[in-house]
Design a protein that fits this description.
The protein has 520 residues and is mainly alpha-helical. It folds into five domains: 2-130, no CATH class; 137-182; 199-238; 248-451, no CATH class; 453-520, Arc Repressor Mutant, subunit A. It contains 25 helices and seven strands. The chain has a three-stranded antiparallel β-sheet. The longest helix has 36 residues, at 330-365.
Length: 520
């Protein structure tokens, strides 16, 4: 400990030092520790003071072991007339603290002898800290006036504080904090009644609570509640930042009817990849490839049609979001959400198809299949393949690429970074309980904004196939609305036309159906 303390004053903060040589001076003998490592002097001083503190904890030092005794940081700061934070800052540049035992209790203290030695080595900084004075009223007023003038000229708050501090002989940080309090403090705008209740009303509305009940709770009219809910929906949609690939066919006459309504884009039946267990996902991917081995060309055309429809819907929704007024129409919001929801369903199908291809590439990379690998390696491969597939789909251009080739190249690249080729001499690992991991849980960052009851899809499917209790008519209506179980998402107006009823009645039917599904 004494050797480390004696070494600290000899270190130049601006120089570099070999760690092994420094340790040899502390230990008093050559050592192989830290061989080849170099440390800046400033960092080395901080490390040595920490070493001194750690070693002193084992020595049972007493306050009277050195002339002048010892004091805590708070006691010495009060004696010197400085802040305790100043002593903490000095510890990082060479002021040593020690663990001492006083009245049978250990505590961290600083020997007055060590403080005097530090003051002799850092006389300018020591005197500046002791001579620090707070701003009086006149100086404070002058500093603020000069700062406001510099900020009005276009300087940042930090640069203004730097110039004013240099002119008045003050610390940059002190003046900057003063300016932050007096000049840069943001003015908190008082929220209006509409803003205060819009989030509450929209949340209650999404939970299928009737607008009349929300209005009664807020003490507002029902029309007001409907208006603020629509405005809040628009604000949420403005946070969506979808990206798409621009295709030449998007601007052709009739593209709005042809591209989103192509047969492949209206058939949203998934392939059946089992998710939640990697081993089951690998096995189901093999079964899907075996069943569709002769439909490669048809799958390729369908994937490219779905990708084009997805990009077109994202483009249309994004442009509609940009054009939303402050108080939007409910039908426009419904159409935007339906477009995003349909694009989400198409993207999920493309991700599923891409994972089937990518898991097939994983079979080629390992003898006996990836399920023979340890669990953590399997999860890493699953995450890598899932990420690669999503990145390809977000940038896939069906006019320039073939879907299967693009996915295969991305999967091969991801696998090459995660696992070596052909592990022939490695014994297979037995997974008695499987390897839990979700590959299809989230396919877009804006999924939660337009898919509020996606966690109910299993319940809807179970009611429709009769394996769970519930009203099939309600489940069918919710599936048609949100695009569950192979259905295409629909707006409220489209549902009303199909069922030959009014939009108001269909809206109420939807609310009742969603509430029933939530109760199930």
């Amino acid at each position: 400990m004494l050797a480390a303390e004696a070494l600290i004053p000899t270190i130049d903060p601006k120089a570099d030092y070999a760690v092994s040589e420094t340790l040899a001076k502390v230990l008093g003998a050559p050592t192989l520790l830290g061989r080849g490592q170099v440390a800046p002097g400033r960092e080395l001083v901080g490390d040595l003071t920490t070493l001194v503190l750690d070693l002193s904890e084992r020595l049972s030092l007493a306050p009277g072991d050195r002339p002048g005794g010892a004091g805590t940081l708070e006691e010495l700061a009060q004696d010197l007339g400085v802040a305790s934070k100043t002593l903490q800052r000095w510890r990082r540049v060479g002021l040593c603290a020690h663990w001492i035992v006083e009245a049978g209790r250990p505590r961290v203290a600083i020997y007055r002898e060590a403080l005097a030695q530090f003051a002799s080595r850092h006389r300018a900084e020591f005197d500046r800290a002791r001579n620090f004075r707070r701003f009086d009223a006149d100086e404070r007023r002058a500093l603020i006036e000069e700062g406001r003038a510099l900020v009005a000229q276009g300087l940042s708050l930090n640069l203004a504080a730097k110039q004013v501090a240099a002119a008045h002989g003050r610390s940059h940080e002190g003046v900057r904090l003063l300016f932050l309090r007096e000049i840069g403090s943001p003015v908190v705008r008082r929220r209006s009644a509409t803003e205060r209740c819009s989030a509450f009303a929209e949340r209650a509305w999404r939970l299928c609570i009737e607008p009349s009940r929300i209005a009664a709770r807020l003490g507002k009219s029902e029309s007001f509640v409907r208006a603020v809910v629509d405005r809040r929906r628009a604000d949420v949609l403005r946070t969506v930042q979808p990206s798409w690939v621009e295709l030449a066919t998007f601007d052709l006459p009739g593209a709005a009817e042809t591209i989103p309504n192509a047969p492949a884009a209206r058939k949203l039946q998934p392939l059946g990849l089992r998710d939640g267990n990697l081993i089951e996902a690998i096995e189901s991917a093999r079964e899907i490839r075996r069943l569709h081995v002769r439909e490669t060309r048809a799958h390729g055309d369908r994937d490219e049609t779905r990708a084009a429809a997805m990009h077109y819907l994202l483009r249309r929704a994004s442009r509609a979001i940009d054009a939303l007024p402050r108080w939007p129409e409910r039908a426009v919001l419904d159409q935007i959400e339906t477009d995003l929801r349909t694009a989400l369903r198409l993207r999920a199908l493309l991700v599923e198809r891409g994972l089937v291809i990518a898991l097939g590439r994983a079979d080629h990379f390992s003898d006996g299949g990836p399920e023979r690998l340890p669990s953590e390696e399997m999860r890493q491969i699953g995450r890598a393949l899932s990420t690669a597939v999503r990145e390809v789909i977000s940038q896939f251009d069906p006019s320039r690429q073939r879907f299967e080739r693009a996915i295969s190249l991305a999967a091969d690249y991801a696998l090459a970074k995660r696992m070596p080729l052909k592990r022939q001499n490695r014994a297979g690992v037995r997974h008695s309980t499987g390897v839990a991991q979700q590959l299809l849980a989230e396919v877009a960052q804006w999924q939660g904004l337009v898919d509020p009851i996606a966690h109910r899809v299993a319940c809807v499917a179970a009611i429709l196939d009769g394996s769970a209790p519930g009203n099939r008519a309600d489940a069918r209506l919710v599936a048609r609305r949100y695009g569950f179980c192979g259905e295409v998402p629909r707006t409220v107006e489209q549902l009303a036309q199909e069922d030959r009823t009014s939009v108001a009645l269909m809206t109420k039917r939807l609310r009742d159906a969603e509430a029933a599904i939530r109760r199930v």
